[in-house]
Amino acid sequence: MSATVYVPGDAGALSIGAGAVAAGIAAEASRRGVALDLVRNGSRGAYWLEPLVEVVTPAGRCAYGPVRAPDVPSLFAADFLNGGAHPLALGRTDSIPWLKGQQRLTFERVGIVDPASVVDYVKHGGYQGLTQALSLAPTDVVQAITTSGLRGRGGAAFPTGIKWKTVLDQPATQKYVTCNADEGDSGTFSDRMLMEGDPFALIEGMTIAGIAVGATSGFIYLRAEYPHALAALKTAIAAAYQAHYLGADVAGSGKRFDLEVRVGAGAYICGEETSMLESLEGRRGEVRVRPPLPAIKGLFGQPTIVNNVVTLASVPWILAHGAEAYANFGMGKSRGTLPLQLAGNIRRGGLIERAFGLTLRELLYDYGGGTATGKPIRAVQVGGPLGAYIPPAQFDTAVDYEALSAIGAMLGHGGIVVFDDTVDMARMARYAMEFCAIESCGKCTPCRIGSTRGVEVIDRIIAGVDAEHNVQLLEELCDLMVQGSLCGLGGMAPFPVQSALKYFREDFRARH
Amino acid sequence: MPPRPTYTGRMETLLPSDTTVVRRIVAEHKGRPGPLLEVLHAIQAAMGFIPAGAVPVVAEELNLSRAEVHGVVTFYHYFRTARPGAHTVSLCQAEACQSMGAEELAAHARQRLGIDFHETTADGKFSLEPVYCLGNCACSPAAMIDGELHGRLTADAFDALIRETAST
Predict the structure, then answer these.
(1) First-to-last CA distance in chain A?
(2) How many CA atoms lie within 13 A of A355 on its CB side?
(3) Chain A within 8 Å of B94 (Cβ-Cβ)?
(4) Does residue B2 carry a pLDDT above 70?
(5) DSSP readout, A194-260?
(6) Residue A93 in 3-state DSSP?
(7) Given CB atoms, is B86 within the 8 Å cutoff of chain A?
(8) Which of A48, A344, A420 lies nearest to residue B137, judging by beta carbons?
(9) What is the mean pLDDT of residues A219-243?
(10) Which of A12, A404, A408, B65 has its C-alpha lying 20 to 30 A from A31's C-alpha?
């Protein structure tokens, strides 16, 4: 019997040497005449342990990491194929404390299954949600999503069931399901990990959405910066067609659902839903004025679901295990789990899926272990480039939509970027405005002009030109952008600036 | 950073062989809904960039105005209107990578390659581009070279990658 070895093909793992490790293991096995089944799985999300190599033993999957290519001969010498002792041995993968404490629902298969295999997906519980959905009336599928309390994981946190109900209620011959996979926020990679590690979960979620609201066509709008995810999705979609989980007769139900991937072209604004629809239609990604809502008049003018990757990939679990089971996780109005992403200057970075309610402190220190540089944490930015900077005094805040909102922050897509005490918060504020200026679609004036003026005002503050007056001017500009912008880009780009001014005012002074 | 190269929109005529390529690409995608971005991606994949002379051809084939096609080409950062170097180095400059020294790494890269962002080396080997997030934020700082992702980069690791890439 040949041994089964898992070496992640996840882009993040590849970026730190997983490709060389996989090649090294294959070569060493061949040199030793050992038969090997080498599976390229997704990442478990513990990037501080990547490249994480796993072997299947009678006791379960055992992990070694972080493995570098030169370690490979010594792993063979230590008989790692049978779970042998080695300095890099981590024991059973599911008993690694960082992973063990997590509550993986949406990411239950990521890092575990072969992302190219529909058979492996089904073996690990895949397509049970679809089977359940096909046995229900469309209104009951939508009701299950409403009951689960699922809210949009892309950042806006809008109740998913209400959005679906709106689309379901529209009389139209053609409706669409679109997936927003334009994960542009710095500090976030959960969509990428899911698409690379368990693409069938997204495909199944979109198929269920289509069946629930009567849409026969789906599009995944994927950012151009994710070539590995593109390859994984294309492989999985082809396999799903082959196995009749997509196409004219989904799982023998007689219902049609077609799905294709469209690639963006490096515009951050296309993560805004109406801009994404414009881009999908082949136009400049300029934001649309709402109403009408996309649920009523979306892609090509038809009723359209627009949901984020994680939102849609959570749907199969909810259908398979029941809406109440999902709603039992979480607190207050934030039900279920959230894949949080610990990023930037952090010792143990990666993806942590837990029920809502964990505090920032638990995340940053218990999971994260503090900064990678070993210096104190001075600030964290939660929710991407439009999210507020939070000082250590507020680290006891719970990570849920309402608790963060209560301190003027936002959870967004769940990314947390950590900075040590060398960070210059005036420069970070300047960057927020600069980023907005680079990425503004140009449709509304507060965003297009305001962001450029914001950079200039901060430059004057840093240069020591009439600082007091210019800080006041900056505050007024932020207020105007928040109140007057057409969408969240100009409307939220001031959040990091305002929070930097509020908590780190001492950085807004003249430089030498 | 210097401004991106300006797309002039001037009338340029493609070589007949390139016109054939562009017409063939449009024909492949024409029947799909909202095909313009797909067409532009395919042209860039085939030719390395989107030549100004391709704009009127695409416009004619898709029954759009030249202004519409020009508008889309220039809206998106990813579409290039000038021939890039043989290798494209994209350095992430977003917050997570900044927290781990992305700006210092960019300064090093500029010096090592002798070019600024949006420029190409004189020998035509490398183009240097900023990128705002590669989704590798737990392994910062990150870069992408010819579609390959690299994480936890240092100046030395960057130099080694450049040497390795230059020799291919």
Answers:
(1) 68
(2) 14
(3) yes
(4) no
(5) HHHH-HHHHHHHHHHHHHHHT--EEEEEE-TT-HHHHHHHHHHHHHHHHTTSSBSSGGGSS--BEEE
(6) helix
(7) no
(8) A344
(9) 98
(10) A12
Tokens of A14: 């590849």
Residue A195 tokens read as 């698409």
Interface test with B, best of A16, A182, A390, A431 (most B CBs within 10 A): A16
Packing angle of the helix pair A467-484, A445-462 (nearest 10 deg): 160
In A245-376, DSSP assigns E strands to 258-263, 304-308, 330-331, 334-335, 337-344, 350-355
- Residue B101 contacts residue B112 (beta carbons within 8 Å): no
Distance separating the N- and C-terminal Cα atoms of chain B: 29
Spatial separation of the C-alpha atoms in residues B53 and B77, rounded to whole Å:
19
Backbone angles phi and psi of A81, in degrees to 5: -65, -20
Please report, to the nearest 10 degrees, the dihedral formed by the alpha carbons of residues A241, A242, A245, A251 taken in order. 130
At residue B44, the pLDDT reads 97
Per DSSP, A371 falls in state: -
Residues of A in contact with B151 (CB under 8 A): 12, 15-16
Burial class (CB in 10 A: 0-12, 13-18, 19+), A328: middle
Sign of CA dihedral A448, A452, A454, A457: negative
Q: CB-side exposure of B16: number of CA atoms within 13 Å?
A: 0
Quick: pLDDT tens for A113-150: 999 999 999 999 999 999 999 999 999 999 999 999 99
Q: Token pair for residue A221?
A: 């709008």
pTM, entire model: 0.97
Residue B36 contacts A, CB cutoff 8 Å: yes
What distance in Å separates residue B73's CA from the closest CA in chain A?
Answer: 8
Mean of the per-residue pLDDT values of chain A: 97
